[in-house]
Request: fold
Amino acid sequence: MVNRTVDLRFGAGHATLRLPEGAEVLRGPVIPAVADPRAAVREALDAPIAAEPLRELAARKRPRSVVVTMSDITRPVPNELLITAILDRLAEAGIPDSACTILIATGMHRPSTERERRIMLGDELLRRCRVVDHEADRKHTLVRVADDPPVSVNRIYVEAELKIVTGLIEPHFMAGYSGGRKGICPGLVDLETVQRFHGHRTMGDPAATEGRMVGNPCHVIGMQVALQVGCDFLVNAAITHERELAGVFAGDLVEAHEAGCRQVEAWTAAHVAQPFDLVVQSAGGYPLDESFYQTVKGMVTALPALHERSVLLMCSACTEVGSPEYTDLMLRLGNDHRAFLAEIAQSGRTAKDQWQFQMQTRVLERIGVERLLLANDGLPLATQQRLGVTPLEGDGAAIERVQRFVDEFARQHPDARIAVIPEGPYTMLRR
Reply:
């Protein structure tokens, strides 16, 4: 009998895993790449959803200032492809590059480095336009747009005469889907609004979950802010598992985004008839598995495949925990998630990045820390032991330890239901 294998996303590449007999691979259908990415983007700009073509919009408005937002390095968006096409269409309408600012919607992430900007945009775009990072804690760069509740938004975005939002549509473990309104909120808002978006009550709502927008408090808050400040034109991409362009959804902020979400759901949904005894989950590969903070997304999106006695084995190449605030929190309370939940419920305040640990507690409440395993070579063992996980120890590299664990689990539990999710959080599990 020929051994079945599967390639898991791991770091910048893949790790090959031999599957025990009867193991299931959970992934959506094949996502077709577009044959001509540049043509696909141009077509989307020229025939948008519920909006006039970008070139006509720009010619009619004749803006003196244009802002084009983009995601930071944590999202594998084809930024260079999208933004080059946008600037070219604006130029055809008589809008020079000098009128345009590329605004990186960092939310509360750190500012981008020069190296990251070159990766995301390429040298030509960096020469063509001014590029600015949003910084949520710099009050002088923000403008108050609402008082009840108070909301402030990046001044460059608010004051631009033409607002274009770009991004990536993919399943999102708390906001339903990425893209659309998320390019504005939490991408461009102040610290207080981000904290409300990620607050204890919001994260505690079961509707704050993957693949759901109706009734999802994250989606509701984001849409309220986005509609307050406006968006003239949306350009969202969808990508294949190999990071190739699969589709472009441009036009109206709401209608174009919803059209993209429907298509992404069809591409990424994998159905789970009943939970599994062992789930081997990729953290999504680069850039998601660069940090433990982002690795948590893979844990949470595996929940539909887990029962109370399941083992979840996370495979992540992360080399850092996350922001200093998140790192301090995890090192202090990572192994006592109930104390953490009690603390944030009582405090009434939202500390930076606490929401990621709150989402991880959904998994810990289901299976406990002893059944949440982490296969990782990038973090010191002593650090891993304080992150609310059980490190997968042993000789050899992480994927070798994963293989030995899977083989031994299958030997000891011959009737066990075993699943592997090679694309990690890019696959949306449906019960």
Q: What stands out?
A: Residues 37-267 form a domain with the Rossmann fold fold (CATH 3.40.50.11440). The mean pLDDT is 95.
